[in-house]
């Protein structure tokens, strides 16, 4: 190691050195919910909904190399598996905030996802 | 940064910090044989990530509540045993205040980094939903694909020329959740991985559902893009 700091645990395993891209959570697991509208839009025509924003300081629309969004799981809607059919989820980034867009065959339906945001 | 400590790596990427960041740590790991189950998962604070050391597929299913995961019961060489690790948010991983070393705490007192973590854990990449995999053509072709080659998009390329220590976290993987009353209703999605011998990793979504109305209990798998985000993690040491 030419420079910097290296940290090992008691077993001698490196937990940090100068190459580490550590698992830093900028936003700990948060639940985002979106309710689809009653009018289908787009092609294919689907019912669309948006979640509220969560605060992710430093995020921009384009800095995906520095801040990345992980949408955990495939969402839940009550306890009905059928609602997962052809539900599209898109991550929407703006300055310091992120939200989800959901497009589904199911109108007026709330979908919930767990989201984590990482900063590097 | 108003106070505390921040550390950056050789590429000027932040490693840990006092102000807002929280770490992840590995709290358990092992290998699941085909059909084997990992139980005792608390989906509110931890998730599973998967690895295999040879070329082949990673597929499996969580239960509906996300508290257990079962590897696909296929012992052929393309499937077989799957390595897994349970990753937990550091602040939910119990005290790190024993022994010696370095702890870094956030302003709320939860831990950001500890040299007592069982191993270093790098986040190499995050794949967003709907960005990988090939959607299949319209009917009737979706009904014939269970044995078709998996085309997949290459979601990640391992530059170390080894699969060792690279884990992929797909969130929940669910197939055929049973509704109350015992009737399987609709279907559910699953992310699936293909480790190629050239160290590229293919990613694809699968949608599964059960036929009704005289088709018996046949199950259909249809290829789709990834429905959940996917974390690429590398365990250090």
Supply the key terms:
heterodimer, A: mainly beta, five-stranded antiparallel beta sheet, three-stranded antiparallel beta sheet, 10 strands, B: three-stranded antiparallel beta sheet, 0% helix, globular
Could you give the distance between the termini of chain A?
21 Å
* Order of SSEs of chain A: EEEEEEEEEE
Give the overall silhouette of chain A.
elongated
**Helix content percent band of chain A:** under 10%
Distance between the termini of chain B: 30 Å
**Count of all domains of chain B:** 1
Structural class of chain B: mainly beta
Task: Explain how this protein is built.
The complex is a heterodimer of chains A (120) and B (237). Chain A has 120 residues and is mainly β. Chain A has one domain. Chain A is 0% helix and 50% strand. In chain A, the strands form three sheets. In chain A, strands 4, 5, 6, 8 and 9 form a five-stranded antiparallel β-sheet that branches. In chain A, strands 3-10-7 form a three-stranded antiparallel β-sheet, with no helix packed on it. Chain A has a two-stranded antiparallel ribbon with strand order 1-2. Chain B is 0% helix and 41% strand. Chain B has no helices and 18 strands. Chain B has strands at residues 6-8, 14-17, 24-32, 37-38, 46-51, 56-58, 60-62, 69-71, 82-89, 103-105, 111-114, 121-127, 153-157, 166-169, 187-195, 200-210, 219-224, 230-235. In chain B, a hairpin with a 5-residue loop joins strand 1 (6-8) and strand 2. Mean pLDDT of chain B is 78; it is low at 137-146. At the A-B interface, strand 1, strand 2, strand 3, strand 7 and strand 8 of A face strand 2, strand 11, strand 12, strand 15 and strand 18 of B.
Task: Give a nutshell description of this structure.
Chain A is mainly β. Chain A has no helices and ten strands.
């Amino acid at each position: 190691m030419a420079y910097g700091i290296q940290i090992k645990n008691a077993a001698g395993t490196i937990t940090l050195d100068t190459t580490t891209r550590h698992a830093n959570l900028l936003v700990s697991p948060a639940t985002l919910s979106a309710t689809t509208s009653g009018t289908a839009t787009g092609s294919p025509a689907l019912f669309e909904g948006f979640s509220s924003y969560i605060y992710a300081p430093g995020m921009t629309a384009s800095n995906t190399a520095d801040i990345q969004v992980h949408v955990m799981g495939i969402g839940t809607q009550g306890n009905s598996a059928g609602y997962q059919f052809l539900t599209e989820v898109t991550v929407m980034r703006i300055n310091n905030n992120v939200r989800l867009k959901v497009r589904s065959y199911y109108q007026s339906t709330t979908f919930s996802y767990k989201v984590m945001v990482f900063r590097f | 940064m108003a106070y505390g400590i921040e550390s950056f790596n050789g590429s000027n990427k932040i490693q840990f910090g006092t102000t807002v960041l929280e770490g992840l740590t590995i709290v358990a790991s092992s290998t699941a044989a085909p059909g084997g189950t990992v139980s005792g998962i608390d989906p509110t604070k931890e998730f599973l990530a998967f690895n295999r050391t040879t070329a082949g597929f990673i597929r499996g299913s969580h239960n509906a509540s996300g508290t257990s995961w079962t590897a696909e019961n296929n012992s052929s060489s393309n499937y077989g045993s799957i390595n897994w690790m349970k990753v937990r948010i550091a602040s939910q991983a119990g005290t790190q205040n024993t022994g010696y070393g370095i702890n870094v705490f956030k302003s709320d007192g939860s831990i950001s980094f500890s040299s007592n973590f069982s191993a270093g854990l790098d986040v190499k990449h995050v794949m967003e939903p709907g960005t990988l995999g090939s959607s299949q053509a319209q009917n009737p072709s979706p009904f014939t694909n269970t044995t078709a080659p998996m085309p997949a998009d290459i979601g990640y390329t391992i530059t170390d020329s080894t699969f060792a220590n690279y884990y992929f976290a797909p969130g929940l993987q669910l197939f055929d959740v049973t509704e109350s009353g015992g009737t399987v209703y609709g279907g559910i999605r699953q992310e699936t991985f293909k480790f190629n011998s050239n160290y590229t990793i293919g990613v694809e979504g699968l949608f599964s559902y059960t036929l009704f109305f005289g088709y018996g209990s046949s199950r259909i798998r249809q290829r789709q893009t990834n429905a959940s985000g996917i974390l690429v993690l590398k365990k250090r040491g």
